[in-house]
Amino acid sequence: MIDPLQIAEDVVRKLKKEFDDVSAIINWRNSVMVKLWNTEPSVTQSWINTEATIYLAKNKRVLQVSLSIQDPEKIIDNVKKSITTLERLEESELYAPLPEPKPWEPLEGLMDKAVIKAIDSPKEPAQEMIDAALQEGADRVAGTLTLSHERRAVATSKGFSGFEEGTSVEAYLRAFKGPMSGHWSFGSRYLDLRAIRKVGSKAGYFASITTNKADYEPGKYDVILSPLVVGNLMNYVGFMASAAAVLMGYSIFAKFKPGDQVGDEKLTLDDVPRDSELPSSAAFDDEGTPTYNKPIIEKGILKNLLHNSGTARKMGAKPTGNAGLVFPTPWNLKISTGGLNEDNLPKELENGLIINNNWYTRLQNYVEGVFSTVSRDACLLVKNGKIIGDVGRVRIADKLDRIMKNVSDLGRALYMIRWWEVRTPTKAPYVLIEDVNITKPFA
Predict the structure, then answer these.
(1) CATH number at residue 125
(2) Quick check: pTM over 0.90?
């Protein structure tokens, strides 16, 4: 097994004489994925890969090189091939010297021995998902279970050296019953078999909740979004909280400033890099700055943008431990809870739609937050507190800040969500939103 910290330190030592700033980030990962098809673990794939990201700066010109490597010695060769590119670049408006090292507090609980063991025999937890879906009435299922052992190291020319090691679990499942389908997902540092079974039972529940088909007319609806949909939309909000996104005009927060009301007071959205349950938790960022948990939106008020040293210098702020050497990003997201009773969502909604899942989220105007997304799997029409039937696919066509301001209530429980439509791990509840604009997806 390679030593990522030694590689990072060697790269910095060999390059720092030629550049003003050097940062080396080495990520090693040993992963196994079980693909589920036709209600069976059909394919198991395993791989070990090492990824290197090298940041170079000279005379305020910056270059970031990313590569997958088999031989660590080839990092220097590949980087040196890029040096002529750096010399042709213009000075960066966002350049700032890498920060001096500060004390950082390691995170505890990032490793789960059960994940390490299951990497060698992953079919048992995969079968738990399958069985739970079938017990809810599903006819068949499809999905994946991915287990990983990860090592991350960062070294900089300012003398920072940091190493972290952890595990991660990512599971998602689609369950089918006749023409109906349901979906759920889970992402964590830990192999929690109860949560794995819940992925199956939730997907099976939504696939089996009704056999009726229903129709709807485009218009404004009160809507309950599942944690899958909430996670997807809040991932976009988290992306827009990057100071780089604001500076580039790819953010609704370009028209706001910290202290402005951007959502209902019930809504709080936190960046939580130090939440050890979530699989992107980290004690330090790619510049070596210590991380800390912080609100992006607190009780509807924009509190913080996310900064690296460059964006902080440009905007007169302080780094927030979110580098991204070029583009600061959230590590993990956590959304506030409320009083919404998950056990009787139709009654809580009374009239409207319950949307289990979504995909094809697209932004038509980033600054105005104009977006659309299409429902996937169960989309349930509710009248007078009862489910009338599944309406198939609908399109949400609205504005992100209007969605946030129309939050009426949030669920009492948080679910740890991560799958291909929610890449930033997110603790999300069910959310009730009023007056959401719903259209036909193929008008």
Answers:
(1) 3.30.2290.10
(2) yes
